[in-house]
């Protein structure tokens, strides 16, 4: 019997396999698994994410992984850099559009929903390629502190702790056993780093994103350690 | 209607305005804000159609923020003024002009800067300037009082005297004065009179 692959069900994303799968979308999710991991944790009054910058070549500047979306929201991606950039641009425009209409900072959920729909549309049409990017979006708004996760299917997940990218299952397993609701910022960063090293053995500089108070900031690990001893 | 005044000082730049919003021959509002910050070191003073000005300010703020995230550092004062004037020019050329005149003031790497952008999209750099219906009167005060190298303290005094003179003789201006000083250290607001 021929496999669904041999029968060409992975040629077009608008085509289901007989058992109801969209192979191109699944392949896109596979691409994300090669991306460098990001770990995020939500505490009582903060949300953080840690990730390592990519610096394979000492001659090149490390590529930044955490991106500002607005003063109160940040994001980090795993997968194709270009696809992540497209989503970041889209999120930033959405945040500023909200400010123009309401003269208020945008809430995290609205940005996440917009980006989720945007990603999802790439799974519905022929002639396009599903985006090979997963995103963690974190931030602060009137409803509190949030972390959200978006994948190439456009699925939105929110929660207390999560990981995307390479070996994210190992990182998530660790978070599952060691997460506590009363973590301090420092403890959350340390736990996230521990989970990150479960997923990836690397020495490159760590970037930290922190949503606390009304704002989101990105910083180096040493800055974060100095601010939250 | 309105009187706005801007002047460049040795250590910063000053914007001042009255607080009156006119609705035809009536005083529409007695405590309106005519000076808006664009970010931590830039602000605009507006005259003309309030709705047009509010929309423009929001648009410029949004575009500047996107630009800043993209390139990693904020727009200079002259870049902000040019961005604003490009939108004004587009408005005029598409027969839907923004009926407003704005003073763009701020402090950046090149020091204190002051620009004026009008409905046609023309943008000029000035040492001191005024716009709105009270500007002929305010400019009289500025022409006789402004000296190059005034400090922000003296500048605020000259600016509020210019607005005050306009408020005395121009029926479109009144109800108190708002002054903003922008220096290297940031922004400092002061209000004289006007409804809260």
Describe the fold and architecture.
The complex is a heterodimer of chains A (229) and B (196). Chain A is α+β, with helices and mostly antiparallel strands and 229 residues long. Chain A is 34% helix and 26% strand. The model of chain A has no long low-confidence stretch (mean pLDDT 93). By secondary structure, chain B is an alpha+beta fold. Chain B is built from 4 helices and 12 strands. In chain B, the strands form 3 sheets. Chain B has a 5-stranded antiparallel β-sheet, with helices on one face. In chain B, strands 5-6-7-8-9 form a 5-stranded antiparallel β-sheet. In chain B, a hairpin with a 2-residue loop joins β3 and β4. The longest helix of chain B has 22 residues. The chains are: A alpha+beta (229), B alpha+beta (196). At the A-B interface, β3 and α2 of A face α1 of B.
- Our estimate of the beta-strand percent of chain A is 25-35%
Order of helices and strands of chain B: EEEEEEHHEEEEHHEE
Strand percent estimate of chain B:
25-35%
Principal-axes geometry of chain A comes out as: globular
Structural class of chain B: alpha+beta
Helical run tally of chain A: 6
How would a crystallographer describe the biggest sheet of chain A? 5 strands, antiparallel
- Strands ordered across the widest β-sheet of chain A: 8-1-2-9-10
The unreliable regions of chain B are none
Rg value of chain A? 18 Å
- Report mean pLDDT of chain A, rounded to a whole number: 93
Number of extended strands of chain A = 10
Name the helix and strand elements of chain A from N-terminus to C-terminus, one letter apiece.
HEEEEHHEEEEHHEEH
Residue windows where pLDDT falls under 50 for at least 5 positions of chain A: none
Q: Mind describing the biggest β-sheet of chain B?
A: 5 strands, antiparallel
Structural classification of chain A = alpha+beta
- Order of strands, main sheet of chain B, comes to 10-1-2-11-12
Number of helices of chain B: 4
**Terminal residue distance of chain A:** 61 Å
């Amino acid at each position: 019997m021929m496999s669904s692959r041999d029968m060409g069900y992975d040629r077009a994303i608008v085509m289901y396999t007989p058992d109801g799968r969209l192979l191109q979308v699944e392949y896109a999710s596979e691409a994300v698994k090669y991306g460098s991991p990001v770990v995020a944790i939500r505490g009582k009054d903060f949300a953080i994410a840690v990730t390592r910058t990519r610096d394979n070549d000492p001659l090149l500047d490390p590529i930044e992984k955490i991106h500002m979306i607005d003063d109160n929201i940040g994001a980090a991606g795993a997968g194709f850099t270009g696809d992540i950039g497209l989503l970041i641009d889209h999120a930033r425009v959405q945040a500023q559009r909200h400010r123009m209409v309401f003269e208020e900072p945008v809430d995290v959920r609205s940005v996440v929903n917009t980006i989720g729909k945007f990603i999802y549309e790439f799974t519905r049409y022929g002639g396009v390629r599903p985006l090979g990017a997963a995103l963690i979006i974190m931030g602060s708004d009137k409803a509190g502190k949030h972390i959200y996760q978006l994948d190439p299917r456009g699925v939105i997940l929110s929660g207390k702790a999560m990981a995307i990218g390479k070996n994210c299952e190992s990182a998530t397993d660790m978070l599952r056993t060691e997460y506590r609701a009363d973590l301090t910022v420092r403890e959350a960063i340390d736990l996230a780093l521990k989970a990150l090293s479960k997923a990836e053995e690397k020495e490159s500089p760590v970037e930290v994103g922190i949503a606390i108070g009304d704002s989101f900031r990105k910083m180096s690990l040493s800055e974060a350690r100095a601010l939250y001893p | 209607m309105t009187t706005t005044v801007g002047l460049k000082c040795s250590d910063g730049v000053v914007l001042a305005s009255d607080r009156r919003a006119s609705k035809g021959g009536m005083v529409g509002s007695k405590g309106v804000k005519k000076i808006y910050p664009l970010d931590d070191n830039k602000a605009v003073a507006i005259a003309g159609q309030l709705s047009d000005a509010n929309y423009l300010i929001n648009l410029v703020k949004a575009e500047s923020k996107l630009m800043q995230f993209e390139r990693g550092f904020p727009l200079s004062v002259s870049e902000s003024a040019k961005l604003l004037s490009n939108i004004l020019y587009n408005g005029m050329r598409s027969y839907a002009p923004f009926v407003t005149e704005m003073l763009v003031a701020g402090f950046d790497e090149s020091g204190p800067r002051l620009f004026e952008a009008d409905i046609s999209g023309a943008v000029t750099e000035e040492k001191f300037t005024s716009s709105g219906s009270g500007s002929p009167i305010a400019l009289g005060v500025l022409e006789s009082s402004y000296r190059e190298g005034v400090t922000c303290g003296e500048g605020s005094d000259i600016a509020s005297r210019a607005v005050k003179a306009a408020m005395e003789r121009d029926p479109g201006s009144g109800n108190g004065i708002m002054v903003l000083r922008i220096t290297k250290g940031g922004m400092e607001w002061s209000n004289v009179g006007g409804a809260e």
